Amino acid sequence: MERVVFGSLLHLSSLINSLKPYKVAFLTNNILKELWMGEILKYKEAPVIAIPDGERYKSIESAMYIWKILREMEFTRKSLLIGVGGGVITDLAGFVSSIYMRGTYLGLVPTTLLAQIDAAIGGKTGVNFYGKNMLGTFYPANFVLIAPETLKTLPQEELLNGLGEIAKYAILDSTVYRFLQDIDDPMEALRRDIIEACVNFKLKIVREDMREEGKRRVLNLGHTVAHALEKLSNYRIKHGFAVSVGLLVAALVGEMLYGFDAGKVEAMLHRFRLPTGYPASPQEVLRELRGDKKFWYGKIVFVVPVEIGNVRVEIVGEEVIKRALEKVFK
Ligand code: NAD
Ligand code: GLY
Fold first, then answer.
1. What is the pTM of this model?
2. Of the four listed, 99, 123, 151, 262, which is most buried by Cβ atoms within 10 Å?
């Protein structure tokens, strides 16, 4: 499993040197190249491969472009590719690195809140191919450097997007939940101890079940409905915002089945200025859910909160889901 270091960009040279790589290259996008690569190159001078910004560049075409450059550079399995960016770049860097010569050294420097607490952790890599993340591998990085200073330049909307996933960890883990109790301004959630608690929770899970055969499925809390909303919006809604709405639906399902206090989740989402609704009808959302691969014979595998810090992954009937959807979507 990956070595995760909470630090600053100052730690980059020692992490690189510890691998004694034959060659090093950075992979980033044109925005991060402008904003952060000047600073990063002070710690390690190396070629920078930059692709355009955007989810649509998390593609096999980008991967081929990068593989070609690595080949021309005479990269080997003992060379190190370092992805610097949000989840698009960390997923792509992981994918490229895992396939090239059956795997090079890989380092990740996630620069969005979402990538620091989620995408860069746990070894899932991927590119979009006739659907999101349809090609991918499990390939944990040799190191992940979490340098919170890189969040200074992140637009507020992207910070809130990451907060949607932090809210998920708060339901899964009572330590994160307690940390968030005394926070009113969403930006306070960017505290290092909160980021560390989220990452440590995810690491604990993925170290037991990297390939999502069991326990890792709890990380999908809120995601079934989130994916339905993302599809309904044609991927215009941000993932973290869709997760926020999905968390409320999951909380309501938990309330119906186990007496979970969904009001706690709703209050937290309000405090974080995260969405608790979306302009779609319950029928439209249900129709999308029926297309989900986890849905069969009127039942769906759902992550259901029982109490803070305790969820169950179980089959839930359509009737219960429908009642929860009717409370959230009008
Ligand atoms: P992103 O990578 O598109 O980044 C969001 C925006 O922020 C981009 O415009 C980017 O250029 C910009 N940006 C990044 N860092 C910045 C900085 N420090 N300052 C200013 N701007 C900056 O989006 P994301 O939300 O980080 O990641 C979403 C991707 O992550 C999706 O492709 C998703 O599938 C993937 N993901 C993967 C996993 C996993 O386990 N592998 C988990 C969750 C999400
Ligand atoms: N983002 C969910 C997972 O990594 O499993």
1. 0.96
2. 262
Three-state SS at 175? helix
Q: What is the pLDDT of residues 108-159, one digit of tens each?
A: 999 999 999 999 999 999 999 998 899 999 999 999 999 999 999 999 999 9
Q: Pick from 139, 95, 89, 130: which is nearest to 109 by CA?
A: 89
DSSP H or E stretch at residue 129? none
The structural domains of the chain, ordered by start, are: 3-151 (3.40.50.1970), 156-328 (1.20.1090.10)
DSSP H/E element including 278: none
Is residue 167 within 8 A of residue 25, CB to CB? The reply is: no
| Cα 122 to ligand 2 centroid, rounded to whole Å | 7
Condensed to tens digits (0 to 9), the pLDDT of residues 244-289 reads 999 999 999 999 999 999 999 999 999 999 999 999 999 999 999 9
DSSP label of 25: E
Determine the distance separating the centroid of ligand 1 and the alpha carbon of 162, expressed in angstroms.
9
Ligand 1 pocket, mutate which of 56, 58, 158 (most atoms under 8 A from CB): 158
* Residue range 75-118, pLDDT digits in tens: 999 999 999 999 999 999 999 999 999 999 999 999 999 999 99
